[in-house]
Write a structure and sequence with these properties.
Elements (H helix, E strand, L loop, with lengths): L8 E10 L8 E6 L2 H10 L5 E7 L9 E12 L5 E18 L5 E7 L9 H22 L13 H11 L4 H9 L3 H28 L7
Parallel strand pairs: 1-3
Antiparallel strand pairs: 1-6, 2-5, 3-4, 4-5, 5-6
Helix pairs in contact: 2-3, 2-5, 3-5
InterPro entries: Lon_prtase_N (IPR003111), Lon_prtase_N_sf (IPR046336), PUA-like_sf (IPR015947)
Organism: Leptothoe spongobia TAU-MAC 1115
Protein name: LON peptidase substrate-binding domain-containing protein
Length: 218
Amino acid sequence: MDSVSSVAVRELPLFPLPELVLFPGRHLPLHIFEFRYRIMMNTILQSDRRFGVLMIDPDSGQISKVGCCAEVVHFQRLPDDRIKILTMGQQRFRVLDYVREKPYRVGLVEWIEDEAAEKDLSPLASQVDQLLRDVVHLSSKLTSQEIEFPESVPELPLELSYWIASTLHGVAREQQQLLEMQNTAQRLEREADILTSTRNHLAARTALKDILPEDSPS
């Protein structure tokens, strides 16, 4: 994948996490207890409060090359020098090289951005938004529980694409692929496919539930 934007190259402390993908604009709470990461947090809290989050593949153990910068927005010191922090995802980055690996990893990274859109993505964003609403409605109907549609869903296509990707659960590899995409339309199109499949699955289950009596054996 070609780099679309490399406005700056800098050193960035890195925090690999298993099966966790952070997206721009999303919060990530962390409990820091491992010694090397306590050192890292104490260091960055005295500087710009920024570090990089990278996903560790659960099967291969490989650390992804593309991640998201996290900024500490709140922290609380606990006994034994443990720290609870709340971070906010900032811009994405690609690791070019490792500067060092002890006591914690520090990488030389470049920032990456999406390509400029060649067409108006509002219709596609509206389609994805409606698919999400359909999924929430069907989930509510299937579970017989009121599930309110979040008020914080972004309207802008880029921010919406990140928001949707961050809500996917149990599919870290899929999320990593969405994070690495540098085309907003392609990311939204992939999310439309995922949501359409989910909607169809939920619709089929809901229809079956409507047909079968509640006391029917499963």
